[in-house]
């Protein structure tokens, strides 16, 4: 989507954090935005940031795990702004703790919001996006924990699932003019560790301790990327139709180690031709090679030098005869 001015974006979990960062950047670029959040308090605070052009923003309180509420929110968004062009599945909860202590409630809550909420968003909005025929884009917020498992096994499992979901959806939507991106940010200055405050009563059987302590709030999270910066990178990713929107270069070395470990684990013997022929449809996905080649070509492009432009050399003045 090159021309985003006037287009409409629907963003879940946009009352704060990354979702609000995306909403502010999109709005500043001329888009109309529908911001949704489970917390009315967060929505009220977020709306104050759009006081200069409030007519381009609409807020809806939404629980992404409620499918009927998602449909009602979609209907309301279309009544206010018309067709939705960009869907940002951003709502999520940080469920962190040892898998050895996890309960069914921990799993059910995380899966319901982080995976189920995205399924509900896609199932609700994708048919509408295909029907209006004006193209569009779907962005789903995963995490660097969706590519590199280190802590929070439940959280990582849900975020890994989103990467595979978006990769598959991307391939299927290519012929329909709808782009798909998966956002995998590293540490961002948000209140992710305060998510336990929104855990429903029916999922309260947990042995995990809350991580929203003073160290997290005052020392760890402030070192993270500003949500507005993430929003800018997302907007750029939409305009370029990037499959992966990665924000933190410091994680590259760790990812290389993981990918190398996977490649080193393949058997070295030659597979039987009959088995290869039977599996040819799933041996490779040309989408990945195309994305790799495009992004590597972008890296090789010379970057414009900052500062003053070099002035062309002046021609020597002619001497009078």
Keywords:
321 residues, alpha/beta, seven-stranded parallel beta sheet, 11 helices, 45% helix, globular
| Annotation, overall tally of beta strands | 7
Average pLDDT level: 91
Strand order of the largest sheet: 3-2-1-4-5-6-7
User: Could you list the spans in which at least 5 consecutive residues all have pLDDT below 50?
Assistant: none
* Portion in helices: 40-55%
Give the H and E element order.
Answer: EHEHEHEHEHEHHEHHHH
Distance between the termini: 61 Å
Kindly estimate the percentage of residues that lie in beta strands according to DSSP. 5-15%
Biggest sheet layout: 7 strands, parallel
Assign an overall shape.
globular
Question: What's the SSE blueprint?
Answer:
Elements: E1 8-11, H1 17-28, E2 32-37, H2 40-47, E3 57-61, H3 67-81, E4 86-89, H4 104-132, E5 136-141, H5 153-173, E6 178-184, H6 214-220, H7 227-240, E7 244-246, H8 252-263, H9 273-278, H10 280-283, H11 286-300
Parallel strand pairs: 1-2, 1-4, 2-3, 4-5, 5-6, 6-7
Helix pairs in contact: 1-7, 3-4, 4-5
